[in-house]
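Researcher: We're teaching a course module on how sequence relates to structure. For the next exercise, students receive a sequence and then see the predicted structure as tokens, so they can try to spot secondary structure elements on their own. Here is the exercise chain.
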Amino acid sequence: MTDSTFEATLHTLRVWQGQLPAFAPDEAPETPLPLFRSWFVEAARAAQPEPHTTQLATVDADGNPDVRTVMLHGADERGWHFATHATSAKGRQLAAHPYAALHFYWPVHARQIRLRGPVTTATPDESYADLHARSTGALAAALVGHQSEPLPSLSALTRASARAWTVAHSDPAADAPTWTLYFLHPEEVEFFQGDEKRRHVRLRYHREADGRWSRELLWP
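Model: And here is the predicted structure for the students to work with:
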């Protein structure tokens, strides 16, 4: 593929086709959780593909940023839930520096949500329950283990996956001891509503020292 093909393709792309929803920040709730849940349900009902996927950003041992896509497992007063192996790259990074950011993007409504704050771990019982609330495939993937470790060959993955699927089918209660449920407790949450004329509305919530939330608008 030529550079010109890439450039031509890139510059023909457009975003946010059709009518976009309005957002009146003065009518937003006092805390961010109800607004997040409302926007999430609206995105799902508008057939946004995989609205429960989110980008998780952490920092490594050198303080360099690292980001990947994970699945949202819940959002409540305890925080925004996601899970991974404690021995994975992100698990090790969170153990060393338990602070992270999440980013949701729902182009069907031209909406983004950004969160950042400290991260804590659930109890082993809660992590076990989280693992077994998911599909057989999710359990099999967790049972494979070795997440983020070097893989000697694709055939090694095939064999390990086949063994894990056998266990997941024969023993649905099997445990993956390193599977860990995490909670991100946001200190800041920003809601971004895109606008056809680029007059984007940005509302940021900030948690004060007393636990209450303040709100402010940001320039696009």
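Model: If you want an answer key for the exercise: The first helix runs from residue 3 to 12. The two ends are 35 Å apart (CA to CA).
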